[in-house]
Fold each of these.
Amino acid sequence: MTPLLLKSFTATSCIGQGVTATLEALRQQRSGLAICDFETVDIDTHIGEVPGVDDTRLPHELRQFDCRNNRLAELGLLQDGFYDSVQRSAEHWGRKRIGVFLGTSTAGILQTELAYRERDPLSGALPASFDYGSTHNTFSVADYIRQRCGLQGPAVAVSCACASSAKVFGSARRMIEAGLIDAALVGGVDSLCLTTLYGFHSLQLTSAAPCRPFDVARDGISIGEAAAFALLERVPEENHDAVLLLGIGESSDAYHMSAPHPEGLGARLAMQAALRAAALDPGDIDYINLHGTATPSNDRSESRAVTSVFGPTTPCSSTKGATGHTLGAAGALEAVISAIALRHGLMPGGVHTNDIDPTLTAHYIRVNRPAPLRRVLSNSFGFGGTNCSLIFGRTG
Amino acid sequence: MKLAAYIGGLGVLGPGLANWPETAAVLAGRQVYRPAPAVLPTPTILAAAERRRTGPVVKLALGIALQATAQAGEDPATLASVFTSSGGDGQNCHELCHALSLANREVSPTRFANSVHNAPAGYWSIATGAMVESNVLCAFDASFAAGLLEALTQVAVDQVPVLLVAYDSQYPQPMHDKRPLTDAFGVAVVLTPNRRDSSLARIDAALTDLSYDRLTEAALEALRCGCPAARALPLLRLLAERRSGSTILEYLDVSRLEVRIEPCP
């Protein structure tokens, strides 16, 4: 593929609002996970909650979009001058020439969960104030960001479970290459809700402790929330010190709805496709940001897949011990973490992992490694057996 | 770059419409449209264990996808796919939200696994063994045009055949009052970069500001408006009439999708 420029990027998760705070947390190997006290949830687990979401307000004219997910989107949009960067791009290219591609798994479903508690006792009707299209519907976050930024190009939400906001890079890449748009606002926003907390708990996939990716005692995920965005454009001739998207690989497991292929076959196909798209060899990758959810089966199959492509020496880690698993936002959050890693020469060590599972052969790192990085691969896999690998690189 | 492809096969299911030939007869005026509740087929392509877990949107999506790939004579396992839906499985969503509103909050693990927007795409890949890329989209009422745009872009840029599957089903009450979709409707299209013996027509697409087309017959226009996937009907009419022509499909507020059809002789 033709590489694309990450003109600007930002991330907001439980470890920090914006790139500077995120970098600082990564440098300190600080986790944002805490005992779950979200809403009325009564589950013995840890979560990665973003502080300040409830206090965030949407502009009055977009108040119909008001819900936790869009508040998180708004909070994230205003970090790192990202909104201003989008506006400059819109003025340069024209508002119809910028597309919006956002990943989410549950959007604002929390709004519906709350509305179901307030059903009319006689008729069963939901409260009049509940607005399905602007809050619950999967598209609502893309619609909100598009209207908030005054963009008029193509817009869509990608919802492939936990690979959603990695796959948005693919949709954006194709539309830029087709010449339909000149820039793409890509990203992911997913927020805490009862559906995912109780749902993953029902599958016995949540850990009571903070999640421990690749640990011998790992026993499940910690659910987090995040808003992460990037502005993609074609690479200009002058591109010193830039972060580029070099490759995208997508595949399907064709195996099971909620369990990964045991040998990581789909994951391997995605990583190999990303390498092919970037015209790179496995040895060109300096660091891998793993999907690394910390369930026994996910980490086992991902380790097998990584080792089958890269061998046992390429350093890799999961940042989910710090951020939690931000589900539909994980792909974009970890894309931004990969960009931060490239820009600042930092391989982030995995947090909360004490004893690396000796049966996992991938080269998992627990301690931060400062090193000049040129290429980073980021993995995102989801329910339904959907896989996406992204490769980012640095110029100059 | 031209946004163009060849249509190799179609699948349709909706109220009073069991397949593409029936739908084509209605749209071409050879048969009167008689609305009746949509009948969703049992997904026999799935193993029994999986089949038991599937809801209406999976039946709908797999049903139309099988129609389209069979007509196109394509091996489903080799086709990249774009699934697009405004809301996914409304009944499943209702059951989850209802369970979460009760004191014990007992959520069915199968319901939760099926609640992901990409459940039909997941079951499709499990059923057919397709390990190629599959994307799953939502653009509320614009979901059909958004899916068509994504699929055509993929065909044009990556030069691969793509299966587009657009589908929607109803929410039960109380959600139905907030999102009143009339019935289940779905359309699947096999798109290839080059013309083949089986190609039905060439399709070209472009974004436009012009207003979108409606259907003149009240019952068909009600269907078009009542279900986001049925926003495809003006395009399907051109294909049913087997004539050259263009139509403008509803997309986002300030943006529409113009499609031009040239039948293959």
Note: The first strand of chain B starts at residue 4 and ends at 13.
Amino acid sequence: MAKTAAQAPAKKAGKTAAKAPAKPKKAASPATPVSTPPAGSVPGPKKVRVHYLTRVEGHGNITVDVEADGTVSTCRWEVPEAPRFFEAMLVGRDYADVHHIVSRICGICAIGHQLASLQATEDALNINVSEQTHLLRRLALHGENLQSHLLHIAYLVLPDLMGVDSILPLAQTHRDVVLKFIAARRVSNEFSRLICGRTTHPQRMVPGGFTMFPTTEELQSVRTMLKETLPNLDFAVDFFATLLDRFPKFERETEYVGLVSPSEYAMYWGEIGSSKDERRPVRQYRNISREYIIPTSTAKWTKNMGESYMVGALARFNLNAEHLMPGAKAAAKKLGLKKGCTNPYMITVAQLVECVHTVEESIQQVEELLARGIREEAPAKPTSLCAGRGAGAVEVPRGILFHFYEYDDNGRIFQADCVIPTNQNHGNIQKDLDALVPQLSGLSEKELELRLSMLVRAYDPCISCSTHCIDARGLDTGARSLVRINRKK
Amino acid sequence: MARKPRIAFFDFAGCEGDQLQIANLEERLLDILGHVEVVSFREVATGHSDDYDVAFVEGSITRPEDEIRLKEIRKNAKILVALGACAAIGGINCLKNFLAENVYREEVYGSSARWFPTYAARPLKSVVKVDAEVPGCPIDPTEFARITKELLLGRTPWIADFPVCVECKQAGNVCRYEMGRMCLGIITRAGCKAACVSQGAHCWGCRGLVPGANLDAARIVMDRPGTSRKAIQDLLRFFLGDTGAAL
């Protein structure tokens, strides 16, 4: 562990040098200190405030306490995002509107929220949808996961690995890689658009089915595009295989939770699986995502068997790797990712493996749809409205997402609950930070910032999603920073 | 050479889907970036500066502390643009304004509700002067590109001043009222090419009221046999909670 800490400065120096010519106008550090006594000159506690973690969706910060001798004593993960009260806004709403409302929880995983919502509504109101609807919805989920993963890998994480601020300088220095990622991402957006009608807050999916369908020609073009994307992803895999030594070495055992299925790499449905616990049906989601609050924390945390658990690409990989498509298995091998990996920095690598899997499986599903022939079918209606409860769970880019609704006799929401992946990861992020603390002592503020923000960024936290999030510190601190370093005398 | 205009992106309560639409411009984004310098775009880039000419702000104001930050942005920016429905009209966040505050807080946070100071969600224009808006939930990337171009050329950007019905007819859709359904296209600002109606849904009003919208007439049109008052209220509150349209 200590060895890794010692290696970091040397690596960092190289990165800083690379950064200078690319972005001369920007401040060298992503941090914008707003109340920093000049380093070294003023004795006494030191406080550095840095506005918001960048390259994540939503707002979060890490507070670091540093002793006078450079020893890091604590790291805290905090979330000051404005709460939006979606569950309350749903109360009294008609079942036909509900998924359109929850879609607005998150612009990145709007489709995932819609799908979990539709599953819960259909479960509660006994609506049975057709096989074609399931196939189209699976494709919708694939399109969004691919889009989000590529955004995270290329736009949000790659700059850290290359020692730059954003993808823009890379467009000059590593043009071929960037263009391949952009091309793949454009395909993922087009894929989503052709299946759902729009990539963000789509309108086609409704309880019972779809209001519009992709044509045979559109499906054929999706198939062509996806096939053309595979070589681009192979290129990306080969490129990332050369970067593996830049991922920090850090291991921490934790519990991995995600959907599992005996027949497939579960994304669209399944049971709730855990690396340390028995399988459960989705309706028992509350037994696994047990939420709790501790005084020093800022967000609701969840735990199951241990102190925390992880959801997301690495959790899914650790639970279901044997069900990956052949190309994805080969990619995992090239990237050295093995089932049972406990390094959270490798989440990004698991996402890349999932990208390959998603494209391969989508091609298969498009073939199936083409073979069946697209039928224009009216959405299934509930046979008769009566009060009921229902749960839905899908794997969205950042992990398992639960929606649970209770409807009244008029098909209006009586109670709603949404458990968002990022919220389930908050506790795990904190425990990782705790375990990371011994490796951090003696690092400069810049190095601290990078090591910590890379860890949090690996989880791809989508804080705008976290409807439960609590900023327990409230207004008193005006805490609006990412890595805030408190240096004690 | 004159200095390139410096632009910055900010967000308050919202889903950040509008900034995602901008990232989704892909190559066209690179064209725009050739003419401006992005000094702050937290979702995709590290680095920040308070020296900017144009501020694009996404999301609604939902807490007293948000006002302070927004006023700071207003002070720094020559031009402030509201990005998307939450920023321009309050949008979906205003749904909670129809609930008692203690109710919605406890619904979500139970006994810990007292931790979160919030107030009624509101659009940016309730707090500061807004120079231009890019309407919609989500925004239309092409419209964003056009409005940005007009702003950079020093013009006042034009946004459609007629209702969605105009574009809906051009798109060849069957009127939702003919189908016995409800639709807000009659009072909603166009510019989306009737995106939702064309996908089989109806207009939800995400682009805000068209100038001169006749709300009384709209209510008469909507209030027909077989339509409950509750259904009308639901639809009018969906995005238009902060406008005079909501019942």
Note: Chain A has a mean pLDDT of 82.
Amino acid sequence: MAKSRPVQSDLSPPEVRTKINKVRLNESFSTDGLLAHAEQQARDRHFEDYLIIDVDSHHYEFDHWAEIADYIDNRVIHHIATVLPTPSTVLNAPPMYQEMGDRIPRRIHRKLETTPGPRHREIDVTLRYMDAMGIDYNILFPSPMLNLGQLPLAEIEVAMSRAYNRWLVERVLAEEPRIKSLLYLPFNDPEACVEMVEEFGDKPGVLGFMVVAVHFKPVHDKAYAKLYRMLEERGLSLAFHASYSWDAEQSSRQLNRFLSVHALTFPYYLMVHLTNWLINGLPELYPNLRVSWVEGGIAYLPFIMLRLDHEYMMRTSEAPLLKKLPSDYMRDMFYTSQPLEIPSNPKQLKPIFEMINADTQMLFSSDYPHWDFDVPSRIFDLPFLEENARRNILGLNACRYLGLDPDSLPLTKFKTA
Amino acid sequence: MEVHIGALTDLEEDAQTIVRRDGIEIGVFRLGDELFAYENKCAHQGGPACEGKIIPKVVAIVGEDRTVRGDDFDETEMHFVCPWHGWEYDMRTGCHAGNPKVRLRPIDVIQRDGEVYLNID
């Protein structure tokens, strides 16, 4: 009896992966080489006797983007479109206008930055900005992966986020105590979120977990109860990180400038989850779970406080878990400071700071290297801040939110490795 | 105090020259034979405003029917852009392109016999 060939399930995963890679790797490629069998078919069937017209064929035009872009008539669009060798600044959905062409060039230039090693380049580059700004410790988040929640394929979000979290924990957090993180949660898959906490919750540098706000899943869904209980029991923090979507909503598709999209949708998605979090009584169900709302600025917070308190007073029966006003629960949560929307008279910020208990609940954040980052002096220079409030916002509030003992965190100012 | 920074011919158009002296940084811009200089400190968060991209003002093209037909560059008003966050300044005045009440600190530029001097207080 002939020996049966091993089926794929008989092989260990690494061996299968190797076999697939070996099949697909080619050192060279030619179209006529790939289609040699088609040519043989053409000869065998004497296609030379037939008029054959192909009514639908394609090419990959972006291989010649620079040539094509030169034909763009509008000079402003031409500028935006030709910043990169690919047309991603104009043609991706959504388009990538954050840097306004090359007005803010660091995203393009960052790849040119060299590091001496032997530490991982990401550690060196991250520590450079921290040292330049006088920052001792940071919470490091990904950038393009903030869009993962919008993928229709939940399994991709899970696979990519697990891979990224593993990489970050092993290659960065384990190697540098000044860099910490709240790891990405694939919120489209509640079970995978729980597994993520189980796998990474006790790893060095992991202080909690983060949900990108552009997820279309209600935070109060029972499916997330186990996740929240686990985070609370383990003393891990939870963050909701703002992001944008230009085409996920009918309303945002009406906006024709990134200025408008950024202004509205960043806080909007936070407001949706914040509203659900409050009105569905999650602060009562998980009273010891430390929650922060990240990168929405602060201008939206008075609106939500006023609006929800007003509605709650009229519709109390719709929020039976609440024992106090929504704004009172908000003053127990944490809010990062960036982008700090300082008016021309900075003293006009003071009432907002008082409304949100900024002295004890605001967390300085830079958002560096993103296009609208804040330096620490943005907080430090506020004329109405008392010294203790300044110190709280710059670092001590973060210790409370993240469960850190400030006495165990040596200052690292202006020290390089 | 007058500080000599070189000959006019040393200063390129479409490129800024950054001068550092006594703890102050100054950006010098050339438009034809005119020179403009400002303290290299953005009014926003203190970034290196004079070191950013030089680019014409963007204007909207409005048709007779008062609809916007698109945007274009207006080379009669040259700007420079702070590389930190994109705050954009009029090269001639140092005023913010969107809010003229906000302005970089101007530095007097003196041209004498083909040489350029900055008057630094």
Note: Chain B touches chain A through 17 residues (CB under 8 Å).
